[in-house]
Design brief:
Number of helices: 8
CATH topology of the largest domain: Rossmann fold
Strand order of the largest sheet: 3-4-9-8-5
Radius of gyration: 18 Å
CATH class of the largest domain: Alpha Beta
CATH architecture of the largest domain: 3-Layer(aba) Sandwich
Number of strands: 9
Strand content: 15-25%
Helix content: 25-40%
């Protein structure tokens, strides 16, 4: 009994979403809350120039959990969300197949230094761990320290994102790429990233995100 109690004490940690003690990364209560945000189909049509695959709808518990990931120093959530996204991806028979490399949307070096990690790269690593797809973490470099998009109009978003990226390392001509990010709203960022890749004859076959804004989404 003593050793069982000691093991429980040693391996039970606070849930990063609510603070409850839990033997799992996320407590059962928060997992159930997050599951209410999962989409019936991970493929969202009519949301941009490329097929968009999202695990959930951006709002409620999922919005709060992503905020915990990015602003409360819980990088472990990024890998977990990437794994959930991968499971949804693998269950979708319409997903692209073949030789695909996953490229996370990068942070500017100043923001990366401030945050300590790139949430899109963590999501991509979790995704690739399950799918087995190769990862090019430095495939794109953010050369412009853009403003936060949520406070901008569509026109301002487009100006803000202009010339934000340059080609990094790990990609070659005629590679097929999946762009990975945490949230999809208007698609301005991924479209700018895709244009950079396409200018080097690298094609984008889709975009994967943990959450997409509610427009056009349907819950399970």
């Amino acid at each position: 009994m003593f050793w069982r109690s000691l093991r429980t004490l040693l391996f039970v940690n606070p849930c990063p979403c609510c603070g409850r003690r839990s033997p799992a990364l996320i407590c059962g209560h928060c997992q159930r809350q997050l599951q209410t945000c999962q989409l019936k189909s991970s493929l969202l049509n009519g949301r941009g120039l490329f097929p968009l695959f999202a695990w959930g709808s951006y709002g409620g518990p999922l919005k709060r959990a992503i905020a915990h990931l990015k602003y409360d120093q819980h990088p472990e959530l990024g890998v977990l969300f990437g794994q959930w996204l991968a499971e949804s991806w693998l269950a979708n028979p319409t997903r692209p197949t073949g030789a695909i490399t996953v490229v996370p949307i990068p942070l500017h070096p100043e923001k990366l230094k401030q945050r300590g990690f790139n949430q899109a790269e963590l999501i991509a690593r979790g995704f690739c761990r399950i799918t087995g797809l190769p990862l090019a973490p430095q495939g794109l470099i953010r050369q412009k320290n853009t403003l936060a998009m949520f406070q901008l109009s569509l026109a301002d978003r487009q100006r803000n994102a202009m010339n934000a990226f340059r080609l990094g390392s790990g990609l070659k001509r005629h590679h097929h790429v999946l762009l990975c990010d945490d949230i999809y709203t208007t698609g301005t960022t991924v479209q700018t990233a895709a244009q950079t890749l396409q200018s080097h004859n690298i094609s984008v076959c889709g975009v994967i995100v943990v959450a997409a804004t509610p427009q056009g989404t349907h819950h399970a």
